[in-house]
Amino acid sequence: MYWYYFFSFWIYISFILYYFKLISFNPLPLFILTVIRDILFIFLNSSEEKKSIITSILILRIFLVISIHYFPILYLYKSNKNNKKNNHYTLKSILFYILLFISYLVFIDYNNINLDYVFNDIDKNYVSLLDYINTRFDSLYIFAIWIIIVIYMNYKIITFKK
Length: 162
Fold this sequence. Notes:
Blueprint: H1 7-19, H2 28-45, H3 56-80, H4 91-110, H5 115-120, H6 129-137, H7 140-158
Helix pairs in contact: 2-3, 3-7
C-alpha cells in the first residue's frame, strides 16, 4: 500500500504547506489527533506475542513516524509559544481539515480501499527493506524524495528559532 493512502502523509504535506506559508490553516489539531491515534494503536496492539525484533524496517518506520507525527508538533509549539493570539482552532482551519479528510475518504473509496485495510496494512511483514520501500513508496526514487524532504524538514524544525 503506497504512502498516499495514509492520512498521516496528507497531514504532513499540509504541515509543509503551512510551514512555508502556502496555507494559513494551522494543522496542530490534526497532529493532536494523530498523537491520540498513536497512543491508542500502541495500547491496542501491544501483546506478548507481538514482540518486535529490531530490524532496519522497524528503525525506518520509527524514524518516519517520529518525523511525520511528532517533529511538526515541536515546530508548531515553538512557533506559537509566545503567540497570544490563539490561531490553532479557527473555524476556517477546522473546516479546511474536515474537507481534507473528506477528500481523503473520497480518494481511498475511489481507489477501492477501505479504512480497515489501511490500518491493518501496518502489521504486514516485509521480506526486506527493499520490499518495504517498494511496497510503501512504489520505487526507490519516490522513497529518496520523501527521505530528503523529511530530513530537510527535521533539520528546519530542529534549528528553528522564533
